[in-house]
Each structure stands twice: as C-alpha cells, then as structure tokens.
C-alpha cells in the first residue's frame, strides 16, 4: 500500500473488545519460579507495536521467525540477569506467524535461563491445550481472554472482559482446575480492532473510536465478516458502546485481504482487523 493509503486501527478506548493480551501458559508440573520469572521478563517488555513490527518482518519482509525472535530478545531482555534453571522444556506454537515468533522468543529466553528449550508446532487450541495439560509440551504463548473462555467452556457464560486484571482473576481458578499456571500478561495484545486509512484518520484528526463517533456521526460503511452485524464485539457493539451509526455493511472477511483492499480503495470507511496485524506497520 502507498503511504497515503496505509491503515491504522482506532483505539478501543471504551474496552468493547475482550483483553486478549499475550500471556504465558505453563503446565503446572513445569511451572517453577525460575521458569515463570524468565517468561514474565518477556511479558514485561512486549508491546502491541512490537508485535506488529515482528509480524510485518516475517510476513512482509520475509525474514525468518527465528531471526525476528532472536533480534527482539537481544534488544529487549537482559538475559544475563536471568536466574538459571535446568531441564528440557518444549514450547508449543500454533501454525501462524505471530504464534511461531512468540514461541521462539519464549524458547530463546528459556534457553538463556539454562533450560534445554525447543519449539514444537502444535495445531489448534483443542490440540495444544490438551498437550499442555498432559505435559507433552510445557509452555505456550496464549491469549488471555480467549484462553479464559476456552477453559471456562460455557459459551453462554462470558467470564472474560476488556479489563485485564478482572480477566486474570477469572482465569486463575480455571487454570488451577486444568493443571495449568499462567504468567503475567504482556501489554501486547492481538484482539479485534477497527481500522481506517491513515488519510481518513488524519483528515478527521481521530485516533480513538470515541473521537470517530464525535466527528463522524453518519455516512460510514462498515466492512467485516458475515457474522459482524450480529456479534456484540462488532457492529452492535460499535453502535451501543460508541454510538456509531452505519449507512451500510459490506460482507468481507475478518482482517483479511478483502477488508484491507476495500479499505484502501475507499469502498468501506472502517473495517474489522486484528490489532497486531503486520499490515498495520507504518513503513
């Protein structure tokens, strides 16, 4: 995309989306203090902006996930000050860029903390949660709200929220029951977000969804997946939480190429993306 047509997401300043901050999930038998301290050292430094940059480095610049992870660790974690543990630790990663990069960051830091750490690709959440609980893998970079809802198991009963601390509190008993321990959540999050073009944001001088509602009450076209008009985090949430109104909804995809292209070509004014998407890197 040309600079004028680059996209940026508007800050969800009323916490419409659940807090899907990156959080280390650990098999309880493996969760000693040294291991948790090493993983928490990562969480203390990791930001959403860095996640965007790392995703872009792999997806756009075609660097390897291993190299991108190693560079981030070198720049952000004082590995020399880590307490030393020992033993073999397998870090699981799901088969998409961000998860692979995070798994490598976890393994690099655990390696520096004395563990014999390796990365293993595991499939979807059903598979890797089982592997984590059984001890086939010991560590996994998880998403706070999604992990909380998965362990709670009842779709009708929502226990996660946009509040990080409240969601961590809801997660703790569920984790204990599942034989898991979670570390500290990072500032970095990968959650639903709503993007506009940089040009549109600049012309209205908006950086948040509240500002958009104040300055642009009508005439907006929303793009996103088919379920968006019915899902509380999507169109109904934007209308109820922010008071936005839409002239039209265009059925596209969730944060994928259709939504991004429609945004850049001016077919929609705002579209559903993911907050850590590498395409949002300002290059």
Terminal CA distance: 10 Å
- Poorly predicted tracts of residues: none
**Overall pLDDT metric:** 93
What is the molecular shape? globular
- Strand/helix succession: EEHHHEHEHEHHEEHHEHEHE
Helix content, binned percent: 40-55%
- Widest sheet: strand ordering: 1-7-10-8-9
Radius of gyration: 20 Å
Beta fraction: 15-25%
Specify the structural class. alpha/beta
Number of helices: 11
Describe the sheet with the most strands.
5 strands, mixed
Number of strands: 10
Please tell me about this protein's structure.
This protein is an alpha/beta fold and 283 residues long. The protein is built from eleven helices and ten strands. It has helices at 33-43, 48-59, 65-76, 97-112, 125-134, 144-152, 164-178, 198-204, 209-215, 235-242, 257-264; strands at 7-10, 22-27, 88-93, 116-121, 139-143, 180-182, 192-197, 220-224, 246-251, 270-274. The strands form three sheets. A five-stranded mixed beta sheet has the order 1-7-10-8-9. The protein has a three-stranded antiparallel beta sheet with strand order 5-2-6, with helices on both faces. Strand 3 (88-93), helix 4 and strand 4 (116-121) form a beta-alpha-beta unit. Helix 3 packs across helix 4 (97-112) and helix 6 (144-152) crosses helix 7 (164-178). 46% of the residues are buried. The mean pLDDT is 93.
